[in-house]
Structure formats: structure tokens, C-alpha cells
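Margin note: ligand = PMV.
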Amino acid sequence: MKASAPGKIILFGEHAVVYGRPALAVPVTQVHAEVEILPSRDGKIWVDAPGIALHATLDSLPPGNPIASILHNLSNSLDISSLPPFEIRINSSIPVAAGLGSGAAVSVAILRALSAYANHSLSDEQINQYAYEIEKLHHGTPSGIDNSVVTYAQPVYFVRGKPLEIFTVGAPFSLVIADTGVPAPTKESVGDVRKLWEADRDRWEKVFDEIGGIVNEARDAIQQGKTHDLGRLMDANHALLQQLTVSSDALDHLTEAARKSGAMGAKLSGGGRGGNMIALVDRENAAHVAERLVSEGAKHTIITEIR
Ligand code: PMV
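Resulting structure:
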């Protein structure tokens, strides 16, 4: 029994999305999490994740272990102990703590593989709900955007607590995603934004409104195939994220380097202070911008086409 789920990237609206503004995110299919369920050889439930050097029985893992907690959480709907014992093998090419949705993708792939193994089909809506519960265990107050885009594997316009909207891409466009190599401390940056907001709600609500306005403009531009407008919107969104104190020297340096090497716009993506930035590029210029970003310190790049 095998299942997989893609990575994701937030195009616009991170942080403000926690405060009810919209955000846009898309799947990144160049990276994914893969889960395989095999019959156990010794009657115990085994968890095998070579990427993080994990090979242990489920009952030996502390309850706070992310994979153990997914399995325990699932038991509300599936009685795992009633299933024939299994080994769960997890492989993921999605960099961890980089804003690419690695945790959500692993959760979704586990949920899909195990529900299939149990012959208990779960709708995308149920998968999404479970994956959100798991996100909450690890991130405190997540907006739910990661689990949504990873579950549906389509471009999403997301507003917390509202039905998910899938949006169409009028004309394909290319992005270079570049990793600073610094783990993004999302929980911390989300907490720091909350402190700013608590100290001066009027000021930061205006910033969130501005970000929300950018997101709506960006959605219209994407749907109408007016890709060139997105560069300016990315730059404007990045500047507002700087005000929110969630950028970093490395992110500012890479966004600037991308613009200088011909990108139409660039911004950090996700929680910030590390993790990834994205740059909007012409397809012909993508490899050049990616190389430039590596020479300016990026640890890893992905070129992806959004369609
Ligand atoms: O770092 P990521 O890609 O998981 O994104 C975090 C996005 C935030 O808006 C900062 C938080 C959230 O839960 O939406």
C-alpha cells in the first residue's frame, strides 16, 4: 500500500493569513513524501524513516514524536490495534523546516496509506481535517493552509475557517525556490508577530489589510494570466513581511540577488527568518537565476512551473 503527497509553497499572504486575511499557495510536485505500508514480520508495528535515521517500534516512541502522534491521532477513526500489524516506511524528498510543507505532506501520505491499508476510505475533507489536527499539535496556531494545499494538490486561495477555493492559473509561470539553509523557526516568528499585534493592533491590522489586498490582486492577475504584475506584488509583499520582522539578512540578500539577476520580483515564503524565498522568472532565465542564487549562498534551489 503506497501513497504520496507533494510539497507546497506559499505565493502570497503568509502571517496575515493567521489573522483572517487570504493567502495563495501552490503544490510543488518536484518534491514529495512517500509512505508505504508493509505487513510486519514480527507482529509489532514498526516505523521506518531512513531520512531521519528512525527505525523503531511504535510503542517505543514517545507520544510527542510527530509520526507516533499521527498514528495515535488516527485511532479516533481507525482502530490501528485491530489492523494486521504493519511496518510503515516513510521517505520524503521535501526539506524539513524550509516552508515546503514537509510535515503536512508526511501526515497526508500516512493518512492516505493507512486508511487504504485499513480498507477505510477517507474523503479529502477528512484527510485535510486530520492533517490540520496534527499541524496544531506541532505548530500551535497554524492557519491550516499547509494541510489544505498538500491534501488537494492544487493552487488554493485560502481564508482561515472558510471553504477552500481552488483557483485557476490563466497562463503558466515559473518560479525559482531557493533555500537559505537556515531552518525556519515558524512557531517563533508566528509568536513574535502576535506580540507585535498585541502591542499595537491598529498598526498591524493595517499591514495585514495591505497584505490581503496584495493577495486579491495577485489572484486576479494569476487567473487572468497577467503574470508580469506578480513581480511587483511579490516585492510589495516582501516589504510588508520585513516590517513584520520575519525576514532575515539571508532572505533579503537572496531576494535582492534574484531581482538583480533578472527576476521580475521576489519574496520570502512561509514562516520566514530562514527557509525559502521565491523569485518570479521567465522560463528561459530560470536556470541563470537559480545558479546566481546558489553563488549568493542558497543551499538548494528548485525550478517549478505553476500551471
Ligand atoms: O513555514 P510554512 O510554510 O509552514 O508557513 C507558515 C505560514 C504562516 O502563515 C506564517 C503560519 C500559518 O500557519 O499560516
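The radius of gyration is 20 Å.
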